[in-house]
Amino acid sequence: MAKFIFVTGGVVSSLGKGLTSAAIGLLLERRGLSVGIQKLDPYINVDPGTMSPYQHGEVYVTDDGAETDLDLGHYERYTSSPIDRTSNYTAGRIYLSVIEKERRGEYLGSTVQVVPHITNEIKAAILKMAARDLDVVITEVGGTVGDIESLPFLEAIRQFALEQGRERTMFIHLTLVPFMRASGELKTKPSQHSVAQLRQIGIQPDVLVCRTERALDEDLRAKLSLFCNVPKEAVIEERDVQSSIYEVPVMLQENGLDDIVVRRLQLAAEDIKLDDWKEMIATIRSMSEEVVIGVCGKYINLNDSYKSIYEALDHAGIANRTRVRIRKISAEDVEREGPEDLLRGIHALLVPGGFGDRGIEGKIQAVRYARENGIPFFGICLGLQMAVIEFARNVAGMKGANSTEFDRDSAFPVIDFLPDQANLDRKGGTMRLGAYPCTLRDDSLASRLYGTRAISERHRHRFEVNNRWRPALEKHGLSVSGTWAEKDLVEIIELPSHPWFIGVQFHPEFKSKPLSPHPIFRGFVRAALARKSGLLGQKVEAAVERGSGSR
Ligand code: GLN
Asked: What does the alpha-carbon distance between residue 276 and residue 285 come to, in Å, rounded to a whole number?
């Protein structure tokens, strides 16, 4: 029977609750336990799929096609927890399910209420994760204690502990201990208030994890312990990390968190094995080589919008013992100023996914610059589509080539709706989502990188390379090196005449882990290194027939 850990947060949002939950998961796995992690999100959207990346950051996609919170990315990068639809429930999804049941008459006779109907539905969501044979289920409750939306979730986990037994459940509360510059001291009051609020709801935390920029001294620890009613050894310091977020689990382990959890839940745990993880951190700290990778996109000012991409680049950097410096390049700036100044000096270019036409001409110009100057190029989803449009216009002579997402009247709609997508009028959860198999062409960059011909990757898109124009594009030197056999859809394109140029219709960034970096990202950073040291070809446009269009 599984044991349960609930992670709540107080004082402010963005404390890194997802990261902390993932780190706890990793520590328990490294003590020989099986772990499942899930997140309960208090907002009303049924999933984050229709939210702007400005609001919500990246939408993380699971194998089974759920559009979820980006914290699931942390879970998957740190642990081998099953990650799918049962890993993320929003208030909207819970309410929708209750309302659908009500309409079907499943509550006939009763008044449907937050308690018990909504709280029952929340508890069922937690048990669904536990239904797999797991030792521990970690449930992160999104939002901050004190939010109106959080209440039903906190009430549900209170009931859950009562019903499942307090000895099988534990509450970990993440809080901020701010440093006041004026008085030069750390302050405990916000944590006291936040725990008081939790206790008012009926939840007594077992552990207080304190985010802080300075070390907590004994007095402060004693004060937090006394006022928050938590044993002193369960006041755990989580200092801001120096070089990488992958230091968090090691810090928490050194501060005794895994021992407290194991003891409190009486888990049959082994000694911790973290050597490979610590070795990785030592590598990160010692890396002296560096490459500059340009990321040209629309959501450039926000770290969270391309979260998994930046993480995957870091993983690939570690594998190549190279620090990856990201140069964030606004696609709209490229549109206004041209690519030369903005892209000069980068060792490789990545164009990430995206929606809507803002900045697309800038992205297309950036791809052209990379293609013509032999700069390693990696296009993801919209990035592939940009590369195909650029090639169609500037190499295959298809003037005005475009995607029907941006120009319905283009004479060369080289990117068009996927079959079945054109007539959809519902936006939520209707894209091509989740894992699909892809067959790689022999002797392609892709098959060399993956070292196999059969792969599976995750998707989230409505548009796709238009097969009608494929022969014309191929004639001019664009190679389709990966397809979904069942519908003959283009999944990967390459330019064999270029030293390193690949576009993928899927999102490989979701499957990269720090200790097993994704092969394309790994190869991409290697190519950037080669470019830096002058080992990659320089000018390559001569090799492709420029401007001689068919049609
Ligand atoms: N907007 C494009 C499409 O829907 C690309 C999507 C993406 O980059 N995730 O196909």
From this structure: 14
